[in-house]
Design brief:
By secondary structure, the chain is an alpha+beta fold. The chain folds into 3 domains: 193 residues, Alpha Horseshoe (Serine Threonine Protein Phosphatase 5, Tetratricopeptide repeat); 126 residues, Winged helix-like DNA-binding domain superfamily/Winged helix DNA-binding domain (Arc Repressor Mutant, subunit A, Orthogonal Bundle), CATH 1.10.10.10; 43 residues. It has 18 helices and 11 strands. The strands form 3 sheets. A 6-stranded mixed beta sheet has the order 2-1-9-3-4-5. A 3-stranded antiparallel beta sheet has the order 6-8-7. A hairpin with a 4-residue loop joins strand 3 and strand 4. It is elongated, with a radius of gyration of 25 Å.
Length: 406
């Protein structure tokens, strides 16, 4: 391997894509194509980066299995950064196995990290935690250690374990500073903002308060009956009932919880649950049926009793009733929540992450675009959505382990 390729690889490893391009921009040999692809990805041109990486894979001969596997890993990371979550997972798994077999454990571990990060994005936390447990971070270089700790923090945050998340972020910051990669350090700092940004609203006794993530964690351990509008469940310390697939029942539960310890008039419940301005006898009869279903689902948590004018929620064990809601509630809040990470998403990736149809997501994006809350670039399958302004690419690609002697 010549000196220009080695110098370009070192520049990319240090987070200097322009320095790398200065050395290999005019070359079309396989190693140069791969390094140019990584550099373009670090600069945010994902479309050009994908083309270069695929050309590099074709240019490497069948005997250069390790180089081809590294290119597959780089292509997977480019897909993850551009939020193309439908890339072939099996190809990445095959590449990781090849790297492990050939002793390139650093890039094999990086491939595993990409797999875990994809699982986190689509909400498969248990699978992500299981896959991450197969790695031993003790001998990782600083950059890989920082990425590993970021993933650990991400899992802890989703598990509502703020103390382990803070500890992991401290370790990630230390490793990123040791690696001296500004983009990686910026990613750690952005991740740390999550713990210092309001994560939910608490509605109780007619008052409303913003909560940090650690306050949400403390609330989960309190003796309160919580109607959780973030996860659509009702829980206390002893039990939980999911209403995620029963939207009408959840609306009723929330209305009763917001009014606690008072009752809620029947006409108010009809208006909120069935979205009508005026109640009639048929709607009141339907309300009785739905309240009966809610009472059955909450039988181990609370009682829903009829009063002269309406219905009353009475917890069985809890000392108070509260509602936990998103910081901002609007029709397409979940779509905005994913776009808030600063990356560009395709509608298919959003549909996969949200567990809904692509057409439903597209309607939401069109409505948000009309309101000026999101913007898009590209056309057809290359179209991406994001919240303004256009973000940069902060994830450091760790692929270029192309230095002689490695």
């Amino acid at each position: 391997m010549d000196s220009l390729i080695t110098a370009a690889a070192r520049a990319l490893a240090a987070g200097d894509p322009l320095g790398a391009l200065n050395r290999v921009a005019l070359r079309d040999d396989p190693h140069a194509l791969a390094l140019r692809g990584i550099a373009m990805a670090q600069l945010g041109d994902f479309v050009r980066a994908k083309v270069l990486m695929r050309n590099a894979v074709r240019a490497f001969g069948p005997k250069e299995a390790v180089a081809r596997a590294r290119c597959v890993v780089a292509e997977a990371e480019i897909a993850l950064a551009s939020r193309d979550l439908n890339w072939p997972v099996k190809a990445l798994d095959t590449a990781r196995a090849t790297l492990e077999k050939q002793g390139d454990w650093i890039n094999a571990a990086h491939a595993r990290h990409l797999e875990v990060r994809r699982l986190l994005l689509i909400g498969r936390i248990d699978a992500a935690e299981t896959a991450l447990a197969e790695l031993d971070p003790a001998r990782f270089p600083p950059a890989l250690t920082a990425v590993h700790e970021l993933i650990v923090a991400g899992i802890a945050i989703r598990r509502l374990r703020t103390a382990p998340a803070r500890a992991a972020l401290v370790r990630a910051e230390h490793a990123a500073r040791h690696a001296r990669i500004p983009a990686l350090l910026a990613e750690v700092e952005n991740a740390a903002l999550i713990l210092n940004t309001p994560a939910a609203r608490l509605l109780a006794n007619g008052a409303e308060h913003l909560l940090l993530l650690e306050q949400v964690e403390a609330l989960q351990a309190s003796p309160a009956l919580i109607v959780d509008a973030c996860r659509f469940v009702v829980r206390d310390q002893g039990d939980m009932a999911s209403l995620a697939t029963r939207p009408v029942l959840f609306i009723l539960a929330r209305a009763l919880a917001e009014a606690w310890p008072d009752e809620v008039p029947r006409d108010t419940l009809v208006a909120r649950a069935f979205r009508v301005k005026r109640a009639d006898e048929s709607l009141r009869a339907r309300l009785r049926v739905e309240v009966g279903r809610l009472r059955a689902l909450l039988c181990t948590l609370a009682d829903v009793s009829a009063t002269k004018d309406g219905f009353l929620l009475t917890p069985l064990r809890a000392t108070e009733v509260v509602v936990l809601a998103r910081p901002v509630e609007e029709r397409y809040a979940t779509v905005l929540a994913f776009l808030a990470d600063g990356e560009s998403w395709s509608s298919s990736a959003l549909a996969l992450a949200l567990g809904t149809s692509q057409r439903t997501v597209q309607r939401a994006l069109d409505a948000l675009a009309s309101a000026g809350k999101v913007q898009s670039f590209g056309h057809g399958r290359a179209r991406r959505w994001l919240t303004p302004p256009l973000p940069g690419f902060t994830t450091t690609l760790l692929l270029p382990a192309l230095i002689p002697g490695d």
